[in-house]
Amino acid sequence: MNIFKVFENDIRKLLDELAAEGQIPAGLDTARLTVEPPREAAHGDLSTNAAMILAKPAGKPPRALAELLVAKLKTRPDVASAEIAGPGFVNLRLTTDVWRDRIRDVLTAGTAYGESTLGGKRPVNVEYVSANPTGPLHAAHGRGAVFGDALAALLEKAGYAVAREYYINDAGAQVDVLGRSTFLRYREALGEDIGEIPAGLYPGEYLKEVGQALAERDGSKWVGADEADWLPACRDFAIATIMEWIKEDLGVLGVRMDVYSSERALVKAGAVDTALKALEDRGLIYVGVLEPPKGKKPDDWEPRPQTLFKSTDFGDDVDRPLKKSDGSFTYFSNDIAYHYDKHRRGFDLQIDVWGADHGGYVKRMQAATTAITEGKASLDVKLCQLVHLMKNGEPVKMSKRAGTFVTLRDVIEEVGRDVVRFIMLTRRNDQTLDFDFAKVVEQSKDNPVFYVQYAHARCRSVLRHAATALPGADLSLAALAARANLARLDSEEEMALAKRMATWPRLVESAAEAHEPHRVAFYLYDLASDFHALWNKGRDDTSLRFLIDGDEEVTVARLALVSAVATVIASGLAVMGVEPVEEMRS
């Protein structure tokens, strides 16, 4: 149960009652009405802006409307107090039974606790990673992979029908460069001295593996052949090989994709022609000369007549070219076709996860998506900033195999999948992330992955000891939900945990709506902090310990609380794609 949503709906009903009584006009727009935790915990448990946003249309001063709401809210048996704060906010304190009942909700639902119908099974396409198939994934790709995967899981928990998609950029100049680089390594594998890698080709040693594999497959078939013959063969072989590496790396990271879409297949199927014709039919394409931009000139500006898309009609800064000087399509044209294809597949809610270097591309792509779908589809682009890899504060040297970067596989092998996934979500996606190999495995409060996992491990340790102390007792979630007398939970620290767990369903919905999975990591850290505070208090005050000799009733109640904490942590870690640990090892 999302207690905040329950009160939000109930306050709307109270407003209807006030309208029926003639106290306020009927039919007020309550779309902006919210119920959320107050900024200061000392102000209460819940706060609503109802009187503030409805005062003007209701024809009453905010505090006067707040007084009417407070009078009705005070009659509820689950409200301990209702007060007006500031210019008209209403703050509520709920009875302790409300928070105890949320513990029972957790035990009843298990790790499904927090699941929501918010999304209404609406289809949403989350496209992430989508690295060019020109080399192994690097650490920054890993951040986008984890972010996109966690966002997809979060949206699923909030009730959306999610498709995870990888867009293979296998058309254009970069894959021709890959083909030529592969041909060079292929010749090297056959014994030729290739000397220094020419400028403009990919130098990474990983291509030695590709060239060797091609030589083993085809022998000397391509030696002396025309480029027109060997280039497609080398290019296609390299793309297929590297995509297999990428899929393997994603598998090691725990990322699965539902769909792999090929740019080249899209172009070959005529999707670009179809998309541009749709824009042309709506009068959104013209031939013109762009004005010279002020300041730095963008890469796609040329002082010549061009085929342009009217992207400024949809919020972009300048109209955008659709064709190059040689008449071939720009990357932008291909991307328009791709997003149109997603729309035609039923995805009007589209989320793309891109690297920070694509920031200048966002407005035009959003403009194009709006235009090509006639406003039916929306595109949210989440940019993932850089990852700085360090060890004890010093930059990590580059991977020998990759040549210019540290591979994602290197990072996973160094610290483990779960650490990588958790740490990648400890900053907002639009903030630079420092990833220190030493600190992310440190056993301290400053390491969030350890701190959260330690809380779960402590919970499991308590339950293992309880199984020994109470032989034969059924300590399953269902049994605890049915048996525990939660009225025995009355300490400040126990109530803090209950209240924190009660906010998990709200957190799921708000984070899903904002497309911000990092909020899950922040929430879990706070929940872990609350649990560790209770644990530490019990070390000094024996009456607060979880297992109390001679008082099985309070012991069972506290075991219910501990089980609930472990369950909510596991629920949150599942969204992050992280396995909860049963015990910590030094």
From TrEMBL:
It is found in: Cytoplasm. Gene3D superfamilies: Arginyl tRNA synthetase N-terminal domain, HUPs, Isoleucyl-tRNA Synthetase, Domain 1. InterPro entries: Arg-tRNA-ligase, Arg-tRNA-synth_N, Arg-tRNA-synth_N_sf, ArgRS_core, DALR_anticod-bd, Rossmann-like_a/b/a_fold, tRNAsynth_Ia_anticodon-bd. It is an enzyme of class 6 (ligase). Its EC number is 6.1.1.19. Residues 452-584 form the DALR anticodon binding domain. The keyword Cell wall biogenesis/degradation does not apply. GO terms for molecular function: arginine-tRNA ligase activity. It catalyses: tRNA(Arg) + L-arginine + ATP = L-arginyl-tRNA(Arg) + AMP + diphosphate. Pfam families: Arg_tRNA_synt_N (PF03485), DALR_1 (PF05746), tRNA-synt_1d (PF00750). Keywords: Aminoacyl-tRNA synthetase, ATP-binding, Cytoplasm, Ligase, Nucleotide-binding, Protein biosynthesis. Residues 5-94 form the Arginyl tRNA synthetase N-terminal domain. Its main location: cytoplasm. Monomer. Belongs to the class-I aminoacyl-tRNA synthetase family. This is Arginine--tRNA ligase. It comes from Azospirillum argentinense. The lineage of its organism: Bacteria, Pseudomonadati, Pseudomonadota, Alphaproteobacteria, Rhodospirillales.
